């Protein structure tokens, strides 16, 4: 592997970590499209590119979630009784989702990513600048429902390479959990989501053909370690900057960037399905 490629991966990790700390948004929505572009340029197998980008992005959360959860836990914001049961479901859901991802055509994965990220970006544009609504009374479901919800969030996250915060936070807020606790509990959910995804994508890719060197299943290890290391370093920097500037306008710009990346992934998906003439 050329040192230039490794340097680019480190820069990518720095950027995604900084943006995650600045805006409180998981880096997976950025990592997957950029890794897809970089893996394409490096001539990875056409049917492996999106799958490996998703698997690698998801696994980075194992490292990036730890520092975030520690910070939230010190402030007593994590609702561990919620994170525990939903996390149990998330492990199962991400493992199952990885097996499904291993069977799907890469084009469908790319379009699935484009759909969800596009929706998230549009929602971000609509709510940017709005005041947070006053929450309703807390009414959490029973433990089996929490496990089931965690499984669904984990399953979807495994197909997107993301930590699930875009689903967990709205769900907990809808059930009356305060925003501060919802965000902290969502951060705690990142680790089991990533753990299930790690196991799932390793198993799903054990016998895949054409994997590049330094791969563990569908996980590309150089990208995992380069992006995770620099992301962990830069996320606190972004969080510090967030307390000094007004980030609402930046969220609009970030949403437009996400829409552009979603469009790219949609194009990749359509192209991979053979629906577009080259």
From TrEMBL:
Signal peptide: none annotated. It is a multi-pass membrane protein. InterPro entries: TM_pro_TauE-like. It is found in: Membrane. Keywords: Membrane, Transmembrane, Transmembrane helix. The chain crosses the membrane at residues 12-36, 48-70, 82-101, 108-126, 146-172, 184-206, 218-241, 253-270. It holds the Pfam family TauE. The keyword Membrane applies. Its main location: membrane. One of its GO terms (cellular component) is membrane. The keyword Signal does not apply. This is Membrane transporter protein. It comes from mine drainage metagenome.
């Amino acid at each position: 592997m050329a040192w230039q490629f490794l340097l680019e991966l480190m820069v990518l990790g720095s950027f995604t970590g900084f943006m995650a700390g600045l805006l409180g948004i998981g880096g997976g929505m950025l990592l997957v499209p950029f890794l897809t572009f970089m893996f394409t340029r490096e001539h990875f197998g056409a049917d492996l590119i999106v799958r490996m980008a998703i698997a690698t992005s998801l696994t980075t959360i194992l490292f990036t979630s730890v520092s975030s959860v520690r910070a939230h836990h010190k402030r007593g914001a994590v609702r561990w009784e919620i994170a525990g049961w939903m996390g149990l479901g998330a492990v199962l859901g991400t493992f199952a989702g990885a097996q499904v991802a291993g069977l799907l055509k890469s084009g469908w994965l790319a379009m699935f990513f484009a759909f969800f990220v596009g929706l998230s970006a549009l929602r971000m544009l609509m709510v940017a600048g709005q005041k947070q609504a006053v929450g309703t009374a807390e009414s959490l479901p029973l433990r089996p429902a929490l496990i089931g919800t965690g499984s669904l969030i984990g399953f979807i996250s495994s197909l997107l390479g993301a930590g699930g915060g875009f689903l967990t936070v709205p769900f907990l807020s809808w059930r009356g959990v305060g925003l501060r606790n919802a965000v902290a509990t969502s951060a705690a959910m990142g680790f089991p989501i990533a753990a299930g995804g790690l196991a799932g994508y390793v198993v799903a890719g054990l016998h895949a053909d054409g994997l590049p060197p330094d791969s563990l299943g569908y996980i590309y290890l150089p990208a995992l370690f380069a992006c995770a290391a620099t992301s962990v370093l830069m996320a606190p920097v972004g969080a510090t900057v967030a307390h000094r500037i007004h980030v609402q306008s930046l969220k609009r710009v970030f949403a437009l960037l996400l829409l552009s990346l979603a469009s790219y992934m949609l194009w990749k998906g359509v192209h991979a399905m053979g629906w577009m003439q080259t």
